[in-house]
Amino acid sequence: MKIHIITIFPESFESYFSSSIMKKAIDNNLFFIELYKLNDFSKNSSKRVDEKAYGMHGQVISPEPLSDCIDYIFSNTWKNIPVVYMTPKWDLLNQEKVENYYDNLWSEFIIICWHYEWIDQRIIDLYVDYSISIWEYVLSSWELSATVFIDSLVRHIPLVLWNQKSLEEDSFSKALDRKKEYPVYTRPEVFKWKKVPSILLSWNHGEIEKWKKDNLT
Length: 217
Ligand SMILES: C[S@@+](CC[C@H](N)C(=O)[O-])C[C@H]1O[C@@H](n2cnc3c(N)ncnc32)[C@H](O)[C@@H]1O
Prior knowledge:
Blueprint: E1 2-7, H1 11-17, H2 20-27, E2 32-37, E3 50-52, E4 59-61, H3 63-75, E5 83-92, H4 95-105, E6 108-112, E7 118-119, H5 121-127, E8 130-133, H6 142-154, H7 164-168, E9 190-191, E10 194-195, H8 205-214
Parallel strand pairs: 1-2, 1-6, 4-7, 5-6, 5-8
Antiparallel strand pairs: 3-4, 9-10
Helix pairs in contact: 4-6
This protein binds S-adenosylmethionine (SAM).
């Protein structure tokens, strides 16, 4: 999987992609990210990429640098790869949709990110294939919602997770009928008067599996 990220702040991704599971996946060539600084595509001398909105208060990313950047990426890929736009306004993400995106849609795509209120609607009309919301609340910037989306996809790539089985049986998975996972315990058997359910100590595999099923919510 290859993800092209158009951003004003490439550095804001560095910490996330340079630790833990993401770093391991990148180091092992399981997925690739390419960062494009939007200001490099600005034709004005100050390298500004935003303008005042018509008819309202707030800043909007100008269409020209964005379209130049997307066209540049298209010119370097073998076809016009999908363009994703993160927004509180449209398609609400859930586990089933993540699986569909991962299975059917993309081995390579572009994510546009910005820090102001909007991007020009004509970019959405002309270029954007998928508008995705990570839920019904508003964040102040794009990077968080994009990394949430990227993380949700990347963990599906074989060998990214140490234990692939956990992916199949996480909350909202098909194997759990899209329900939430059962409670999990470790040693000690008693902690502050709270005991581990005795069935989990029984070594009775059939009963334990039944307990897990009964404790999905
Ligand atoms: C302050 S928000 C802009 C909100 C926009 N004016 C509106 O009302 O829909 C700045 C950016 O953060 C990102 N963002 C904020 N909340 C999000 C969410 N729930 N899902 C996806 N992206 C979100 C989007 O990229 C958004 O453009």
